[in-house]
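Aim 2 progress update. The chain analyzed this quarter is reproduced below.
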Amino acid sequence: MIIAVDAEGGDFAPQEVVKGAIKAAHEYKVEIALVGKKQILHVLAGRDQKKSGITFVDASQVIEFGEHPMKAVQNKPDSSIVVGINMIRDGSAQAFVSAGNTGAVVCASLLNLGKTDGVERPALGGITDLSGSAPVIIVDVGANVECRPNFLVEFARLGSDYIRQVLSVESPRVGLLSIGEEEVKGTRLVLESHQLLKESGLNFIGNVEGHDIVRGKAHVIVTDGFTGNVVLKTMEGLSDMFVLSLTSIGRIFSTLYLRQGRALLNDIGLNSQIKRVDFREYGGACLLGVKGNVIVAHGRSRARAIKNAIGLAKLTAEGVRFQNAESEKNVKEEVKLG
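Predicted structure tokens:
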């Protein structure tokens, strides 16, 4: 498996991206192709390049955060985002990770990879918990700001397929984000989507509220991209405060009990809670509904977040590959029986 990584994307690129890629190569045992300015990447990777088996793919252009996504993709065909996406299209990579311009990643994916059959609107699925018992994905978290009810049903299907195929949950629970559990509450979009979801054949459990997201009430939380993006970034801000608070508590207790802060937090069971709410542990969002495995990492990702985004890309690619293999096996068995 080869995972292409946008070395030019993000607030701390390329230094932190290179560090994260080196860590991921060692931890996940995957081949990584860093896409960017080759000469600079050679210097940053140093001796670790040969040890970790990282390769470099040259890309002379960079799409900045402030650029118009569609225009940038069209005007910069040799940008790290476009080159990385094209690696999936050409079969030289099984997944692509970028912490760069989200809109550009989505546009490049739509133009160069295309949509999955039957999908009208691809969406970003934000992972908020990867625990085996109750993984949670919020769909959409930014790809579609304005939505119609049928889009939300499609998001629910995409999220359910991902949770089932990649995270092995047999019948994912789907919840519609609203201001109350009652069926009559919500905007016109929510009310109409609720009725369609009831008839969708999915494991729809009804409306869920904001506090239900972290309680694991539903595996798939469905909403429009505007609301989902606000929710995700609010959770990230709260997680930052929570992590800083617990880390400070750890330092205080470590001086009293002569233990390292992290070790002490682990002893009292708080270290796992820190990881559960820390966005850096999940790496980014999956672009669902395109013909390829694309992970959009946070723009402010440092090495640990990049490493985990690559881990998420590996998990996604393996899950999709396994499902494709199973489908081919089932088709062959049906042909034999026929």
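The radius of gyration is 21 Å. The CA atoms of residues 65 and 101 lie 5 Å apart. These observations will guide the mutagenesis experiments scheduled for the next reporting period.
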